[in-house]
Amino acid sequence: xxxxxxxVADQLQGLIVEGVYREGERLPGVxxxxxxxxVSVSTVLQAHQTLEARGYLQARERSGxxxxxxxxxxxEPAMPSHRSRPLPxxxxxxxxxxxxxxxxxxxxxxxxVPHPDYLPxxxxxxxxxxxxxxxxxxxxxxxxxxxSFRRQIAQRMATLGVVITPDDVLATNGAQExxxxxxxxxxxxxxxxxxxxxxxxxxxxxxxxxxxxxxEIPTHPSEGLSLEGLALALEQWPLKACxxxxxxxxxxxxxxxxxxxxxxxxxxxxxxxxxxxxxxxGDLNHTGERPRPAKAFDRTDNVIYCSSFSKTLxxxxxxxxxxxxxxxxxxxxxxxxxxxxxxxxxxxxxxHFLEQGGYxxxxxxxxxxxxESTERLRSAVARxxxxxxxxxxxxxxxxxxxxxxxxxxxxxxxxxxxxxxxxVAPGRMFSTTNxxxxxLRLNGGNPWTPVVESAVxxxxxxxxxxxxxxxxxxxx
Amino acid sequence: xxxxxxxVADQLQGLIVEGVYREGERLPGVxxxxxxxxVSVSTVLQAHQTLEARGYLQARERSGxxxxxxxxxxxEPAMPSHRSRPLPxxxxxxxxxxxxxxxxxxxxxxxxVPHPDYLPxxxxxxxxxxxxxxxxxxxxxxxxxxxSFRRQIAQRMATLGVVITPDDVLATNGAQExxxxxxxxxxxxxxxxxxxxxxxxxxxxxxxxxxxxxxEIPTHPSEGLSLEGLALALEQWPLKACxxxxxxxxxxxxxxxxxxxxxxxxxxxxxxxxxxxxxxxGDLNHTGERPRPAKAFDRTDNVIYCSSFSKTLxxxxxxxxxxxxxxxxxxxxxxxxxxxxxxxxxxxxxxHFLEQGGYxxxxxxxxxxxxESTERLRSAVARxxxxxxxxxxxxxxxxxxxxxxxxxxxxxxxxxxxxxxxxVAPGRMFSTTNxxxxxLRLNGGNPWTPVVESAVxxxxxxxxxxxxxxxxxxxx
Lengths: 476, 476
What we know:
The structure is a homodimer. By secondary structure, the first copy, chain A, is an alpha/beta fold. Chain A folds into three domains: 66 residues, Winged helix-like DNA-binding domain superfamily/Winged helix DNA-binding domain (Arc Repressor Mutant, subunit A, Orthogonal Bundle); 133 residues, Aspartate Aminotransferase, domain 1 (Alpha-Beta Complex), CATH 3.90.1150; 241 residues, 3-Layer(aba) Sandwich (Aspartate Aminotransferase, domain 2), CATH 3.40.640.10. Helix content of chain A is 43%, strand content 14%. In chain A, helix 10 links the parallel strand 9 and strand 10. In chain A, helix 3 packs across helix 13. The longest helix of chain A has 27 residues.
């Protein structure tokens, strides 16, 4: 059903974009469309609601749906330019400010945290109660991970084309810890590591913790990491690892096509540079099948796979995992040294949750929600922000990358927004350079409320104001 | 009551040690002693059982208690000699072997993990069930820690003479993570840090993770870290931190007297070297009052306090905390960078447990148990091991430090024991040098079973065998 009404919505949207239906026109009635398209009335209604969320339709009481073509068809952001000098990593202060802001109650458009309204709260609670009753099983060091959790992970990985045994899985406190362990396993301090740019702040923080230098490779808004940029970097620098989010990268939302994943894996294997894959958004595809991870194309055991349930089940569990492959011995050791093991109860609870089979059902609802909520935010931004703004069109996850018109400072906008209790993530958090000074990341996973709506309008007004007094771009 | 029967036991033990009662003699009847000492019959019986555990009495059915003076009155180990060269830290391989061994079922005399028989399993379960029912509260990033947990910690710290607010507490995945965060907050890679020697392996692993060099300061078997050795090191080296377990150090079991704690704190404050205090065994004093931490004597905010519930409530919770004082901003940042937050449910569960007031009641029972079980193991070792063996007399916690006769290799003994499914911790894990080659650490917290008893006898026989073919000590 989900797939069908999205198809209908895409079809109608195409007709609007092509000008078959023009702004202000009333769409044919629901029953007429139902006959024309050979789908049920309820499918048409769902498609209408979807297009309303995307900003293409407006419902008028008793009159039906009217076309409201978004003021401009905002483009996706351009691919960032390439920089080829390794830099030490420091991205500290602003992250913590954001984090502290989360504690106070602001309009939460900054951090990439799922909204509790869309989490399976009741099922998690039931599984946690089940886990709590395990008594002795909950009390011992769960190193390298609870057997039941590792077995469930192995089963899930098999459905993604990654055939492993439970012994290949190491439980971690979220994906961030997994990435740090992976980096420690394959690098020494001072080494150079390639990452996507814009990068999610966590990876820059991980590189800083391990004391590494970074080469930032541009990310294409829909195809992901530039393989051409990576090839260049591999020629020029002694890279020791490459960290990539192939599925619904943060902040760009890009999904690398399978053919490019295959090429990425084989390029890095040929260069003998380990690929550290972060797949935390993989389960949150907006359309089609759950995309495969790069690990599924790994024939030489050169990919270290990292993931977590922080974007799907809840960040409070602090539960992730990694598949270190031939680096298992080193990864186990690093995990043991930093905090010995991962808490037992979350592992038992998630194993139970997965075993019950409720996870896939929940994901179907979550995907639909995030597709609609990011679409809705995207069209609100398109309406509210100045001409020249570009917004990513994510294929999964729930964040949007907003490129402001040249000369409008994301940092300045961030500061003005904070003063009005609106929290956004300024572009400079996503690179070690200032090349994203005119960008923002917005969390599109919130329920659409009047508070969020007016926050986006305020942001747009601030951006307009800033455009009248543009900042001077300092040389990066 | 606990105190009284221990006093009686100490009194009787003194009479045996002094030769008032000789080996093989029958003690006066219970009623006679009860009258003589002015205590109840049940107190005398408890004292007898305590002395039986310590190896000084043997119960013979229908005949009463007979003196069995331990074969030799084994001495405490000597204070290790002082080394004054900073060394890089590597202590990796053997730790992991021990850890893997724990997975298979061996006689668990190696790792310092509390035995589940003596954990408050039912209460933890009830508190975890309570926590699981908190729903939304369990789902968010608990950074820098759940308010209820931090409030309970602040209350407990006040009873130890450390007056802080909940905002001064940072929740961590156990004390190991807290120590690593503390080290990162006050050092740079390559810096020199002073630790006790023998040191627990975790601190050496923490130093390795952060990339530090170490100066090992001898620990006196009952008074703890040598202040004289520390003074020398402070003169000679640019120390950046000093990590100390003041209360019931692992592996020595020493408890630093309050006067020396005060001196330690003031020496380090004068030298402007932060003291990182690990207090995980503080709650497990065998006698008297719960000792105060060094932090209680800190007037200049120079002590970073670290602790956890891994030795008391259970290691599987992975729940610790730290009080970073003026290093809070840096500590928060490091915690956020390495894994964002500590799992919510264990924090809520422990906060509930503490609030219910069951913790102190549980501790009274645990202290008594560990006193008795370590005493019992100590006398079994004294009987089974060769002349020339020395064994620590811990004042808290549940580990024993065994110094084998000169020339007997702890590593060799460890390997032979493994072959017979007995797991012990060889001395070389406790230093970056080989100065503890003739030592072992034993976990004295297990219930006394025939399996444990015969394992200790086997270890003693192996030590006798090794004494006949001593190893060549290589220069350290």
